[in-house]
Structures are given as C-alpha cells and as structure tokens.
Amino acid sequence: MKIININKADWNTGLKKTADGYRLIGPVMDQGFYLFKPLESGKVPDMGFTNTRLSAKGIIYPQSQTLFNYSLDPNREDHHLLTEPEDAHQLTVVIGIRPCDAAAFVQVKRNFDAPDYQDPYWLSAYENTVLVGLACDQPGSTCFCTTAGGGPYHEDALDVLLVDEDDQYLARVVSEKGAAFLAKAGWTETADNDLVMKTIATRKEAAENRISSTIKTNNLADAETMAIYDAPFWDDVAFACINCGTCTYLCPTCWCFDIQDETHGMSGQRMRSWDSCMFPLFTLHGSGHNPRGQKVQRVRQRFMHKLKYYVDKYEAGIQCVGCGRCVDQCPVNIDIRKVCELMNNAGKQSVTCAA
Amino acid sequence: MIGYIDKIKQISKQILEDCKVDMVIGFRRGTVPMMNEPCVAKTEDDVDQFVWDGHCGINLANYLMGRKEKIGIVAKGCDTRNIVTHIIENKIDRDQLYIIGVPCKGMIDRRQVNNRFEGVREVIDQGDTVKIIGADFEEKLDKTDLLQSNCATCTHPNPVIHDELVGDPVEVPTDIDQWADVRKIEAMSTEDKWGYFDDLLKECIRCYACRNACPLCYCPTCFVDESTPQWVGKSQDPIDVRTFHFLRAFHCAGRCTDCGACERACPVGINMRVFTQKLEKDCYDLYGWEAGLTTDVRPPLDTYRADDPEEFIK
What is the ipTM of this complex? Predict the structure, then answer.
C-alpha cells in the first residue's frame, strides 16, 4: 500500500488547493469542545483533539435534511412538481475523522444500502465523501474500539489514514478516492515504505495499548434473544434514564429518523430529522397505543438493537464502534460497557442452559 | 459533606427494616469521573451501594413523579424545594415520602473540570478541597473554585423539608448576588440580546436532556411533541430551537429552583439557565416569591390576588 509523506509545512497550502473542487470539513474547537464544521475560506482543521463531541455522522446524514420541495400554488411554474434542494451533496472531504467514526459509516451502510431498499440521500452523500482519517494516538478513557471491531489505526473504512509523525503526516492511501484527493492537494512524495511501515506498526501497537477499556461480546450472537430480553437487570439499568436523546444523537451508529412536511401556505418541504428510540413519541401509534410506552422498554430497545438484533440480522458484529461518547455524555451515567457485560453474561447462561 | 454517607446508609437501612418505605432513592458510584448514578435500594444490601459526595448533582426529585410506593429519598436543598413543588402540584403525596435531608456544600462542575484538565481519570471530593487525578498529573484545588455556577450562588443549601437530616445545617451565605448574569443580559439592547441568544443556542441538538432532567418538565405530552396542532417544527431551524427553549423557561416560571439539572445534563454545554433565572428573578421582583420553600402558599402564577402587581400591563 502506498504511503505519502506530507510535510506539515505544506499542509495548509495543500488543503487550500483542494478547496477548488472539494467542500472541506474538519474538527474545530468552539465553546469548549470539538465539532466537525465546514472549513470556510482558509480555516484550518485543529488536529489536536481526542474526539469530537458529536460524531461525524451528520456530515453524511444531517440532523435535519430537506428531501424535496413542493408547491400547490397554481401561480408557480413548478407547481405540483417535486424539486430537489439546491444544496444536494457536493464532493466533500472530511479531514481528521477518527477510525471509529469512519467504521460507523460501514455499520450504518448495512441499513441504508440494503438489498431491498437503498436510501438515495444517504448513499449519494456517502459516495461523494472522502474520509481522510487521523490515527488516534491518545484515545480517551472511555474508548473501547479495539473490542468493538475496530482500533485506533483501523483503516478499512477510510480513504486515507494520516499518522501524525513529528513534522509530517504519513498518509496511507487506502482507496482511489483518497489518492485523488492527495493528488489534488499536491502531496505526491512517496515514503520509504519499509521504514515507515515499521514506524506505523510501532505507533499502532502503542496506541492500542493505551485503550484501557474493553467489552466482551462473545456470547451475544448465540444467546437466546428472549433470555436477554427477559433478563432481570433491565429495571435497574433503566431506573436513572431520563429518556433524553443524548446517547442516540451523539452516537455515530444510530440511524433512526422521522419524516415531516413543513408547509408554509401552499408550499413546503419534506424534511427528515434524526429521531430517538428514547422518546415516547418514537413508537406512538395513530391509535394512541404505544408498544414501548414505558421507559424500561425504550432503554432495553436501544441496547437490544445495538447488541443483539443487529448482531443477529447482519452477522457482522455489534452496532457500536466503541467511541465512548454515550458513556461520557449521558447525563445520568448509563454505561453501554456495563450493559453489554450484563447482556453478554445473560447470553452465556442461556447458551449453557440450551446445551 | 463527605461524612454524610454513613448516616445516609444508616437511615436508609432503618426505614427499610421498619417498613416505613418500599424503596430508597439515592446515588451509587458512577463509571466515569464526577458522575454518580441515581439508583434505587429495596434491600439493605442495595443500600451498601450508596455514595455521597460532590458528584451527586442530578436532581432526584425527578424520579418521584407518579410513583405509588412509599419512598425514601436522599435530598439536597434544591431537591427538597422541587419535592415541595411536586407536593403543591399533586405529583406526589407528602405521606408517601421519607425525606433524608442533606445539607449541601455544592456540587462539582464536571464540565469545568474536564475543560481545565485533559484526561481526568478520577476526581475526589475531600470536603473543602478537590483532588483531580489524571494519567500523569495530580492537582488539588479549592472546591469553591470548581462549583457548578448555580451552586456557587445558592441561597438555600439546606433541605427545606425533611424527616431526618444527615448533618448539621450548613451556613447560608448572605452576600450573594444570584442574578448578576441576568442583569447583564437585561442591560443589553434588543439586538444584542438576540445575538446573545442565537449564539447561546446555536449548538442545541434538541436532545431534550435539559427538559428531561428537569423535575418541573413532567407534562404527559410536551408542547414540542404535540402533533394536533403542531406548535413547533422538528428540524434544526433556529426559530424552532428558540421556541423550545423560551417556552420551556416560561413554563418553569415561579417553579424553578435553579437546581442546575438542565445545564448539567446538556451534552453541548448550553447555559439555558439564563432563561429560567430571568423568570426566577421576575417572580422575586414582582411577588417576592422563591419557589419550593413552603407547601402552605400557592405559587403566584397559579393563584390570583387583588393586590397582584400590574405595572407591566400597558
């Protein structure tokens, strides 16, 4: 695999060159925490972050998105026609995305790009996005990516993986999309592969060793679904939950949405916005019946979906990349690592009983 | 304050043993620094999980509403004021409760600590000082410098209603200007205020953590969730975001105890307390009212008196 040397002295000028053709997005510090934001007119990404407060999912799947506009006003030329929003996704590059956030797109893609249904909005955004990742040398204390199918140097979901090495970035070129972006920036100096591969391997190992938090998921797939569903711990897990949307909105792998028409007079737009299984409204039927009317049912749903239903349906591991955001930001300290342990243990018992 | 826990455990075990209550609501040690988790103890063994220190900022009154059991609850000054409000608003019956009152010296501002120190692994409340431990550092700071902003200006640290206290009442500060921040905003021009509010709310993700952490927000269906008619849009449109925050604040007028639960819960660090504090201040200026101090007087906004001030009607 090709590795390009990017001298940090050429970093800003290179990024500037790509602004003609790419919309640049990168980590920016504002109000005391990092977020991915468009890098307008020469603004540079601040690469000194651990994790952004919100994941990168909103870049491809915005919290609120106009799907189309419409009008029933006969005086308008485009009446009774659906028109696409003008800002449909342009070619975008995400600078400094962490391997965990990139891996989340692969997990989410299984839902938005299923054999029977393909979501054109998500897919066109995904296809038009280049993920230039930044290897994670200082993982946070709640990060558990290495036991959630990833790692701080995990590059499978990226187009480029940057390794921060003193006064340069070592850029591993993972895809054609990534190569095209690097070429556009004028970064072409090939590194001495054997030497830098050793450097990267050493740094990778050191970073992995810094991950102090782990989960066990080995029993989840074989477990009886109902043994976990009916396990006695859910009331205790759910007691503190206030049913806010923090965990689901900060999560890079939560994908649920709500669709609404916003009408003004005779015109309007169809919007889709993130939704959350923590909200009572999420499953409220038109009849007034709510199949998940109680808090404990909603809390159980979130964890069952991520750690059991997804596991069974896609046979590709859990729906979690171990970024630790929900653990860090839950206002009442509900911790997916702890819940995963309970579920995995309950699963183990069910497997033993069946045998 | 750190010495309270033995007494909390002793009372909790006693009232469970005496069948005075079916459960006790308190805190257990959290899994991340500065976070204790609200939990329920139904047995004496459960009680052994209980902890008490400066990381118990979540308002436990939020966990009482609509419960039918007899409940013991560990409650700080602000929690008890919200319990009073619940009793006034018929959300819980006084006879159902055994209130274990905790005189409070303030809660540690988690956000401030995390902003000031990188990679915090453990934060130990030592009473007047706080020890902050990271991977490669250890710092000791005065607790007064690390308090949540609402705790730093708290004028009711002692429980206003209780069945038992776990310690002597703490000294109540008298030289505090609770509303300095509100006055600053009041003094702004209309244009500057809009600018300030827009900036304040620009990162809101409408997760409703502020609303759900608030003991006052218990409407069966919140106005933002109503669909017939729909009062507020669902998107990130700034008008909808503002509408949510403004209306929620107005809904808390004369009821808010400035417990700080909303601000503490916010994942993106919005200080929405400036809205509720403004209304708290108005209620004080107009009616001399502070919420949650007594069950004997109806709050000003749910009663009418002939001598209510009316200068604001023009």
Answer: 0.95
Tokens standing for residue A354: 């069946």
Collapsed DSSP state (helix, strand, coil) of residue B291 = coil
Task: Give the number of domains in chain A.
Answer: 2
Per DSSP, helices labelled H in chain A are 11-18, 57-60, 99-112, 120-127, 176-185, 193-209, 225-229, 234-238, 246-250, 295-304, 310-314, 325-329, 336-354
Distance from C-alpha of A128 to C-alpha of A261, rounded to nearest angstrom: 26
Count of CB atoms situated within 10 Å of the CB of A118 = 10
Task: Express each pLDDT in A47-83 by its tens digit.
Answer: 988 899 999 999 999 999 999 999 999 999 999 999 9
Residue type present at position A354: A
Separation between Cα atoms, residue B113 and residue B126, nearest integer Å: 15
Shortest Cα distance from B83 to chain A (angstroms)? 17
Min Cα–Cα distance to chain A from B220, Å: 10
Looking at the structure, tell me whether residues A185 and A229 fall in a common domain.
no
Spatial contact of B288 and B294, defined as CB atoms under 8 Å apart: no
Q: Does a structural domain hold residue A220? A: no
Spell out, as residue ranges, where chain B has pLDDT lower than 70.
1-2
**Contact residues, chain A, for B269 at CB < 8 Å:** 31-33
User: Which residue is it, tokens 């003094």?
Assistant: B187
Residue B117: per-residue pLDDT: 92
Of A246, A329, A332, the CB nearest to B38: A332
Cβ distance A145 to A154 under 8 Å?
A: yes
Task: Give B138's Cβ-side CA count (13 Å radius).
Answer: 2
Does A35 map to a domain? yes
d(CA B244, CA B239): 9
In this complex, the residue of B211, B236, B267 whose CB is nearest that of residue A329 is B267
> pTM for this structure?
0.95
A281 touches chain B (CB under 8 A): yes
Given an 8 Å threshold on Cβ–Cβ distance, is B235 in contact with A262?
yes
Q: Residue B242 corresponds to which tokens in the numbers above?
A: 């503002």
Cβ within 8 Å of residue B116, ≥6 positions away: none
Q: Is A187 part of any domain?
A: yes
